[in-house]
Amino acid sequence: MNVIAQAPSLSDFGHDPWWLVLGKIVFAFVVALLGTLLGVWFERRVVGRMAVRPGPNQLGPFGLLQTLADGLKMAFKEDILPKSADKVIYFFAPAISVICAVTALSVIPFGPMVSIFGHQTPLQVTDVPVAVLVVLALSSMAVYGIVLAGWASGSTYPLLGGLRSAAQLISYEVALGLSIVAVFMLAGTMSTSEIVAAQGSTTELTLFGADIQTPGWYALLLFPSFIVFFISIVGETNRPPFDLPEAESELVAGFMTEYSSLKFALIMLSEYVAMVTMSAFTVTLFLGGWHAPWPITIWSGANSGWWPMLWFFGKVILLVFVFVWLRGTLPRLRYDQLMRFGWKVLIPISLVWIVILAGLRTIDDWDTQSRLYAIGIPAGIVLLAALFWPSRKAAPKPTLAEQVDNRPPGSFPLPPLDLQVPPSPRTRRMVAEREPANAPAGQDSEEV
Amino acid sequence: MNTSTLLAASGAVSGGEAVTFWILAPLALAGAIGMVVARNAVHSALWLVLTMLSLGVFYVLQAGPFIGMVQIIVYTGAIMMLFLFVLMLVGREASDSLIEVLRGQRIAAIGLGLGFAGLLGSGVYRATQGSTPLGLEQANAGGNVEGIARLLFTDYIFAFELTAALLITATIGGMILAHVERRKEDKRDQVATMKARFAPGNYPGPKPGPGVFATSSSVATPARLPDGRLSDRSTPDILPVRELTAEETTLKGTEK
Fold this sequence. Notes:
By secondary structure, chain A is mainly α.
């Protein structure tokens, strides 16, 4: 298969006629809108199945038109502007979110070079040498939409949601950026189309005498980065279990509490478009982009023409399913847990992994023996340190008798610990005070 | 990027670049002025965001896509967001007051600012007028990002590392100043908290609410316990318990 010839490089961009550019932009926009329409339906259906109920199934086949109906309904509802809202910012905040989410799709490669009406053109709106940074910049600008929506609403719950979202998104952006660094190191480029092309080459692995073609996907080569990246984008898109800015059990609906009608629809739209965009971004960076997965690569035409777009969207849908799966499975994190996880787990793992990867890249062209030394000595030191790391001896658990003795004075009386029922003191008293049986009748004693 | 690099290197301004510049330059200027003029702190920050975004696009126009994107990610995305975070904590209603403390300082500031901008602008204009940009093509020869990386890790490695050390020191200093760390053994877990709550001498239930009487709905009014005494626990610690006069404490017309 001629993968390399099909993969576009940076020089293939910028030669399209205006109608082709317009067509690609419209296509990316339609992908975003359709992704929202189908994404909401998909999420409700899947979560429904996970909760053992059918989900929306009335409008259209399989309830497919439910989202459309909901969207139309939202457009015709009354648009409420809170009295204490900051009007201009309240109006613009949802638009910022939507614009940032949709624009990020412009640097996502949907497929390789194809021929459209005789023009050889890559299936991607545009590509720049810093395309990955463009997506990062847009996702960091999208935070403004949420934060400003929360602030401009002029009430408490949205403000709390906005504050939470500001801190959360900044924290998870750091982990996100660090996990992408590993991809840059391996691919040697920041352009999305070239990152996809770099994942096209397969490596031969000889396992048990059989040659296995492993894909050069960075999800396999850079597994820790992939995991950190995916967790970070779940945090970055405010999806459960990181949906603290809109935690409906604590903050009503978080930053969008005061929004209604079309503005609310825009916020919903931006959220689902961001989910699709970030899934597409993950596919591009880690899952080989439009490259066909393993069993399909047996067919030599799998990576040419329009077919790759199918594999691409298949992978995107798979990732969207994972997003929904997470929502259906995991409970929401507490805020301090979220912050601790971001700063004390994700970021250190990313940093250590980058250092290890840089080391591995450095010794790549050494001879075998020095490479063994370079890997073996640090690994041995780490192992020894782990082995001899002083562990704190747990304090012996006090026995029951000690615990009872150590109770402060005036504590609540305890029942006997040997489970022997003591003779009631009252019985003894009653026996002592009982009048003799031969007492004269009619002389009633008082009740004891 | 290639076309823009070539154009910038030759000193010519392409049509697209000129159009973008003349659209964004007034916006950047409006952002700067708006930042100074806006009375609400958050509006002020947003005007500054506009200026920073325009600057980012200018960098991209000048064949520096990496620095442009970093400008947007770091300055607009992270630093201004932190500013906003703090401003939002301050509260929505916080606005500048219009009362002039120093007489005439506003006019003086405007005059001095305009004068300084004029001096700086004319100086830069005079200095760069007629000069042709050189070496952009060589600087961007192996790619813009690679060029910056090579410089950072060769010629400017010490400056780079020193800046990093300075920033880390500042961050850690800030954390130490602001962070109150309790020792591990001082931290109470859930079990210890509950034990302390039910320990003898501590009343485990919620505190009684303040008393509400016909004459007062103040939180400073202490509640009455079932035996008629007043409870100190019902009023906030910062409020003094209200001294009731003898007249107030006697029962009203019921003991005859």
